[in-house]
């Protein structure tokens, strides 16, 4: 999780700055430009929040609850809470297992309804299927997808195993 989060942060805009260390030395570093946030797709996406907080303590995090119908596989949005100015922010969308892509597509639609451009959304995922990634790119060609692995079979029940509720 931490490696994917760090690479997602590397994709965000930054400016150069001079940092004074606790020992008084000057160091030429970088700082993120204002206007970044994370959005986790509940519940498994929340597993990635700590990795984001470890790297960027003060980042704002929004949440979306989307559940798929067992029979039709249609995703339905039940809850969405974002920073009020999300339309001005770069968004790290966190969802660890990308299987069909339906859940992420619905999440991006909600973000677009709140004024977020797909080009500023970076999807952070641990495992993706080729079908899921292709579905998202067909619907939103400007979105960025970061994942550790693309494989035809994605692991299931990530959230239950991570949170110990299986």
From TrEMBL:
Taxonomic superkingdom: Eukaryota
UniProt cross-references to InterPro entries, sorted A to Z: PRTase-like (IPR029057), PRTase_dom (IPR000836)
Start and end residues of each Phosphoribosyltransferase domain: 1-151
Signal peptide region: none
Single annotated GO MF: GTP binding
Gene3D superfamilies, alphabetized: 3.40.50.2020
Subcellular location, record wording: Cytoplasm; Nucleus
Location (main, coarse): cytoplasm
SUPFAM superfamilies referenced in this protein's UniProt entry, alphabetically: PRTase-like
GO cellular component, one term: nucleus
Keywords: Cytoplasm, Glycosyltransferase, GTP-binding, Nucleotide-binding, Nucleus, Transferase
Family to which this protein belongs: Belongs to the UPRTase family.
Protein name: Uracil phosphoribosyltransferase homolog
């Amino acid at each position: 999780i931490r490696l994917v989060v760090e690479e997602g942060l590397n994709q965000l805009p930054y400016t150069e700055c001079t940092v004074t260390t606790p020992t008084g030395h000057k160091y030429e570093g970088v700082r993120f430009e204002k206007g970044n946030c994370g959005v986790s797709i509940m519940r498994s996406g929340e597993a990635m929040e700590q990795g984001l907080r470890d790297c960027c303590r003060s980042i704002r995090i929004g949440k979306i609850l989307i559940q798929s119908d067992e029979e039709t596989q249609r995703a339905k949005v039940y809850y969405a809470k974002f920073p009020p100015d999300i339309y001005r922010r770069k968004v790290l969308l966190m969802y660890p297992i990308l299987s069909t892509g339906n859940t992420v597509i619905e999440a991006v639609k909600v973000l677009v309804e709140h004024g977020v451009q797909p080009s500023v959304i970076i999807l952070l995922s641990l495992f993706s299927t080729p079908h899921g990634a292709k579905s998202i790119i067909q619907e939103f060609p400007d979105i960025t997808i970061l994942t550790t692995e693309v494989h035809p079979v994605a692991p299931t029940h990530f959230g239950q195993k991570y949170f110990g509720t299986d």
